[in-house]
Amino acid sequence: MTEDSTPPDHDVVIVGSGFAGLGMAIELKRGGREDFVILEKADEVGGTWRENTYPGCACDVQSHVYSFSFEPNPGWSRMFPLQHELLAYLRRCADKYGVRPHIRFGTEFSGAEYDDARRLWQVRTGDGSVLTCRALVLGMGPLHKPNIPDIPGLSDFEGPLFHSAEWDHGVELDGKRVGVIGTGASAIQFVPRIAPRAARLSLFQRTPPWILPKPDRAVSSLERRLFERLPLTQRAYRTSIYWRLESRFVAFEHPRLMRVAERLARLNMRRHIKDPELRRALTPSYTMGCKRTLISNDYYPALARPNVDVVTTGIQEVRADRVVTRDGAEHPVDAIVLGTGFHVTDAMERLPLTGRGGLKIQDAWADGIEAYLGTTVTGFPNLFLVLGPNTGLGHNSMVFMVEAQTRYIVGCLDLIDRRGGRALEVEDTAQRAFNDRLQGSLDGEVWSKGNCASWYLDSEGVNRAAWPGWTWQFWLRTRRPRPEHYKVMG
Ligand code: NAP
Question: Which domain holds residue 206?
């Protein structure tokens, strides 16, 4: 191998400027590392909270924990943050921590190849240019490629049609007959907003979600003043919410315990839905938690409206101005909104990455996507994934996982420096043992035992998305990299 010591353009390239990318950038700066650039395809930071602007868009995790631990926001207006508040929060973080000058807006990541000889990554961008860096951090988020369902005739629909993550605000839905396909986390937030305005709303449901009441309320001005003047009170509040959420994991590990929460959800439905036929249609047949458990106070009341139909017969086809269901019924619609979710495991499978010795990530992942601690991948030196495989949660805040991972990544860079090396790669044995144990734990948990199909599972039915443990266990394991699990290369 020939040695070429030309320095790379940047020490670190980060892709994405949502919670993951910004969190990474801030952690680098806190560690005194300033030589990095962020590639951001859009013209603003914010990731998912910039992209998703559908009516009613909010987070279903409490504001005080769905934020960086080092940057509490005493000003949250509600217990659960609204999309625009989260976006404003991320913008403030980018400014306050001096991240903005590092961001190349309007620059899309289009792939990367590892240069073995120079031990650096060559990162390609949408405009055809190439950047070199020592370490590459992917923080694109697991839920960013809209899933457009493969329904016959969908492209022949003549009215407006858009996905919830690409909401077309130019389309007037007032007084229109609107068809909504999907009943996941996004749909249950926008359906209550458009139902009162539409002439008719036909909701095409394939699988009903479990829905619990949302313990939301405005944060009083007194509380806000208290949090501002005595930051310790907000920290204590955050800690109490964290442990409350964390305790729910016991039911993910022991799915039988979900029955208690299922009873609560049924009671909640009974309160709002008086029609027993509709209640039957809305009652899930799988164990709660198998798909993401949703929270809402206005979804069921919206479905009880006289102008809303819940259609549970599967869709056969879409025609120019209607949706036809398998029972032959025709549902005329003027517009269709897709609340059909995202490509998750299959989006990762398509990552355009070539590692050491020309190894394509698709070949490395021929048996399924996996990483070590959701972060590093054998054969891909100095590649770091934030919110990579098996880091997803059903019970707590993803921002906690982002912080654990970004601190771990800086720990990896420190390890390389301490050893006087240029790159680090996780040992195959470490990655293997980690994933064997992880899949073993997942076997008994609700995602496998709950009798449902979900985006946590890949096409083989293997859970590639969820972290199978308590989040504090992830935190403990990512406190610092264990040198015996890595080879450091000079
Ligand atoms: P989702 O939860 O994956 O829901 C997609 C919905 O579309 C499901 O009801 C699914 O039915 C249906 N669907 C998909 N393909 C279909 C087809 N071909 N025909 C008919 N129905 C189809 O997607 P999402 O609501 O966008 O949420 C995705 C994830 O984003 C969530 O799980 C959550 O992690 C995150 N999210 C979070 C928040 C938050 O507040 N934190 C808000 C929104 C989203 P099946 O169930 O039968 O597959």
Answer: 154-215+254-338
